Every structure is written in C-alpha cells, then in structure tokens.
Amino acid sequence: MNGIELVLRAVHHGEHHLAGHLTAVAERHRAEHEVHHVATDLAAWSHEHVRLLSEAAKTRGLDLDGPPDPSSAGLLMTPGRTGAPEVKEPGLLLLRDLCELHLNATRNSLYWEMLAQAAQAGKDGELLELASSCHPQTLRQLRWSNSLIKVLSPQTLTSL
User: Fold this and answer.
1) Which candidate, 135, 94, 92, places its Cα nearest to that of 115?
2) Among 3, 87, 91, 157, which has the highest number of CB atoms less than 10 A from its own CB?
C-alpha cells in the first residue's frame, strides 16, 4: 500500500467516525437546539466527505467501504476513552462530547492536509481538488466545537 492509499483510508475512516459521533451528539443533546441542529448539519458534511473519498479511491482501485486494512493501523488508530468516568451532569457531558468532536476533527484536518500535500507533490489534481473542497468544512467543524467549548466551559466548570 502506498502513502496516498494510507492517508485516503485514514481520512475516510476519520470522517466516517466523526459523522457517527456528530450524529450521536446531536441525539444525546437534542434539548440544546443549536447543538442538535448544527451537529446534524456538520454530520452531513462528513457523510458527504466519506462518499467523495470512496469515489476517489475507487478510481484508484481501492475499496474504502470494506473492513480497514491492518497495514494502515498506524494512521487509523483513534484513541478510545479508557477509564473515563461516567458523566451524569448534562453540561459536563456536552463539554466532554465537544472535546472529543474537536479532537476527531483535528485529526481529520491533519489527514486532509497530508492528502493535499501528497496530491500536490504527486501532481494529482483530482485529489488536490477533493482535499481543497472538503478540508475547509472540517476546519469549520473545528471552529464550531472550539467556540462552544469556549462559551460553555466557564459557566459549566465554575458551577460544579
């Protein structure tokens, strides 16, 4: 497997994971209307990224919709919450979810950047266009989660 295939798999996996997490957060925090609606919209972006990545990979003879390739495990590793205490307070749960969303979107942003750099070096206009069109939406996902963390942290953390 070459490096471009590796990063295609990584960003595909990351966007798929982020879409699922955004959808779960939207459902879990349905009472927070802004969170629910924006997270749902942002999940649609990630779903579209997954679709576009699958199409781009198919033109390269790569099937991203199957099980992950073990040889790409290094880039695909996503740390889980090991030993994380159960959070019952809604504000803390929302903050934890937003932090995880932010970290997942950050990872995806790095993968998009790596894909763009590799595409540019390999003079692959199709992949460069894909990364150039999707990466700004990932950056928007980052800004949204970061801004909510900034707004919610002071009140949530000082009221405990």
Assistant:
1) 135
2) 91
153 is a domain residue: yes
pLDDT tens track, the chain, 160 positions: 689 999 999 999 999 999 999 999 999 999 999 999 999 999 999 999 999 999 999 999 999 987 666 555 556 555 555 455 677 789 999 999 999 999 999 999 999 999 999 999 999 999 999 999 999 999 999 999 999 999 999 999 999 8
Question: How many angstroms separate the CA atoms of 61 and 103, rounded?
Answer: 30
Residue 41's domain is classified under what CATH number?
1.20.1260.10
Using alpha carbons, list the distances in angstroms from residue 130 to 15, 21, 26: 14, 23, 27
Which domain, by its residues, includes 8?
3-75+88-158
User: What dihedral angle (degrees, nearest 10) is formed by the CA atoms of 142, 145, 150, 155?
Assistant: -170
Q: Give residue 155's region: left, alpha or beta (phi > 0; psi -120 to 50).
A: alpha
Q: Is the pTM of this model over 0.85?
A: yes
- CA–CA distances in Å: residue 107 to residues 1, 66, 112, 139: 21, 21, 9, 11
Question: Is position 80 within any domain?
Answer: no
